[in-house]
Amino acid sequence: MVRNIGIHEFIACQDTTNRIIIIDEGILHIAHYLFVHESIEPDLKQLQTFIELAPCEDVVVYLCTLKNTLIERTRVRGHKRIPDGSLEAIESFINHAITTFNFLGVNPKINPKLLLVSPGREVSMASDKDFSPMVEQAKHIILTGLEEESL
Prior knowledge:
This protein is mainly α. The chain contains 6 helices and 3 strands, in the order αααβααββα.
C-alpha cells in the first residue's frame, strides 16, 4: 500500500503537462489489499469511506476477466491470502474481489474515469456522460495498441 501511495504522491509533485503516465495497480488497487479476503465479505460502507478519502487517478482501466478464468489463474498461481488453497476458498476470494471492483466501478467518483476492457478486448467507457477527455484519449491509445498487437 505504501508503494502505491508513494508512486501516486511522487507523480503528483511532477509536471505532467502533456504527459501520460501509466501505473499498474495504482491507488484503487489498495482496495484489493484492504477489502478482499477469502473468509470475510467486503465491508461496502468502509469501502465507500476509502473511495471518499483516497485520491483517484485521472483514468482507471479495469481489465474485466471471466470469473472462471480468475479462479483458474488463482488456483494455479496460489495467493498468500488464501492459505489452504481450496477451490471453495479461491471462489470466495474471487467473489469478494469482483464485489469490491464492481462497487468501485459504479461509484460516481470513479465511474466517469473508468474504461472497461472486456475479455474479448472491447474497450468501452463505463459512463456515457460526464467523462473526462482524458478517458476518451486513453481509450484511443488502448484501441490503437490492441489493433497494432493483432497485426
